Amino acid sequence: MAKAKKVSLLERGQRTITAEVGRIPIRSTLDQSMTVQYAEQLQNLVALARSVIRDTDPQNDVITLGVCSKSDEIIVATGEWVLAVLQHPFLSA
Amino acid sequence: MAKAKKVSLLERGQRTITAEVGRIPIRSTLDQSMTVQYAEQLQNLVALARSVIRDTDPQNDVITLGVCSKSDEIIVATGEWVLAVLQHPFLSA
């Protein structure tokens, strides 16, 4: 099963960015400019999502954020760190 | 299977909002003030997600947006209309 899983991740063109909250990314499989651009934009998106959540429940917090578009899927896990995974939404045929 | 599915939706406290893009909501299972607040905030969130997506690919667009928090899950489907579904992330025990 592990091999099949690894193949499916690679086929979905998975790229990852790890960053400390509100800071410059630490690790990324994207080039430098894309990494900095995505890291900043995704942290703004998480901050806006957090404000939406906390407007109704100040004790609540965002755990994950997902954006599915026509050609990409972005999943952001938040906490002490921010981990963003970018991948194609569907396995290539 | 249909009954089990219906039960699981109700147990997850599902609430929905339908709105024309950029306009006041048309249908909602939430009260008026919560509906207007969520509709506006979620459309801002979709707009920001759209700008993140289109910065790298102007032809691309957001299909769905999901925010999972400690106590709620918000799923927004975009297109001609905006449909937002709010539910508890896990089935109540």
TrEMBL record, chains A, B:
Gene3D superfamilies: Dynein light chain 2a, cytoplasmic. Pfam families: Robl_LC7 (PF03259). Residues 25-85 form the Roadblock/LAMTOR2 domain. SUPFAM superfamilies: Roadblock/LC7 domain. PANTHER family: DYNEIN LIGHT CHAIN ROADBLOCK (PTHR10779). Belongs to the GAMAD family. This is Roadblock/LAMTOR2 domain-containing protein. It comes from Oreochromis aureus (Israeli tilapia). The lineage of its organism: Eukaryota, Metazoa, Chordata, Craniata, Vertebrata.
